[in-house]
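Q: Start with the shorter request: fold the first protein.
A: Done. Sequence, then structure:
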Amino acid sequence: MFTDRIERKDFEKMDPEYKDLLGRVLTIQSDCEIGGPHLYVERILPSAPTKIDQLIVARTAAEEIDHFRKMAWVAGDIGVDVSFVLSMPNQKRYVDAFRGLITTWEEFAVFGFLIDRVGRYQLEEFYNCSYLPLEGILPDIVREELGHIEYGAHKTAELVARGGEPKDKVQRALDFWYVTALDMFGRSDSKRSERFRHWGLKRRTNARAREDYIREVNSLIEQLGLTVPDPLKGRKYL
């Protein structure tokens, strides 16, 4: 296992596989950061139920765009141009979760509750990673992601508390985003994941990260009085 801590000045000396994997993970992470706003800004921003909610949606999108900017800066510094993801159609995003559109408030709330939480897990993989410039941009990004998760969880709980149709809509959104969230961790037997870990660019296997997520989120779903979806139904990546 590679344990060195790499500064930018050391990057050119690194093994080609390390360079390739670092560029890849920065590209995918950049795409995920900008992918969120492309999902919900068009429909959800103008239809938010209150002016405060509208402001928070706008701020959330602005923060995600800034997260992209930070990732793009780290990538550009090693010669990887990720600007193409800014105009990439949703259907061509790297991660399936960002390939559609969010059209209802229930979907947006659950997206924050579940998918932004996966985003936190993805960012946590870079804690104490081998590439120091990547680790250096994490504190502000993670702090803001925690705010997105908290808001999504709060709005989900608020809708559930109304009972009836709002709760039913939340459950349907949960059924979709739960399995989507689990797929975001990738294949349990991913060989590339093992190489990320070998080079100190990730900490956990895909399977371990998914298990940690399931353990955390299932309890939260049950506390809301919702039904935990079948973790295998509709999955693409096991």
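Q: Next, the second protein, separately.
A: Sequence, then structure:
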Amino acid sequence: MTKICSVILAAGSSRRLGFNKLTLKIDSEMVILRSVRPFVDAHLGSVIVVAGPDLKLIAQELNSLPVTVVYNEDHITGMSSSIVAALPWIREAEAVFFHLGDKPFIGTGLLSEMVEAYRAERANIILPVCRGEKGHPVLMRVAPYIEEMTGLHGDKGLREVIEKHKEDVLFIETDEGALFDIDTADDIRSLTERGYSVEKGES
């Protein structure tokens, strides 16, 4: 079976909210747990979670799952450093999912669709879209882009790699779960308006 790893980027500081958004509880489950679990349940390969200053808290929340939590000592420099921090764990993989830890509404169904497209279409990059907007996760074949990943810096993450290789991208239409993330108080209010129980995370 194709070896497909997953990397969940969870080293952000959540400055706008004043507490770590990954610790926000939606229906009594932390956002980080809801974001990581689908990749474990998909049984694709190893799952790497890249954390920053809240490493211990995140590791404790995920201790029931078979994941590896990695510390990004350069987290303050931006998202790209978290991708670089994960590279030692994915170099031998054929492909890798990259996902953001503050996107808690991804299901295993989408992951399965993306893997099926990857295998059937032999596309190097699979990207979900909703109403024309690009979402997450992204599934990438490792070998063609590993060197470019090594040179990433700043907060752009994989965007510059994907933009550079537009011809390699296959888009998969999906629902708004691929788009929804938690950045502001308005995002949190929208959850309660949708009927979710929301509890503030730890500072």
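Q: Describe the second briefly.
A: The domain at 4-194 is CATH 3.90.550.10 (Spore Coat Polysaccharide Biosynthesis Protein SpsA; Chain A). The mean pLDDT is 92.
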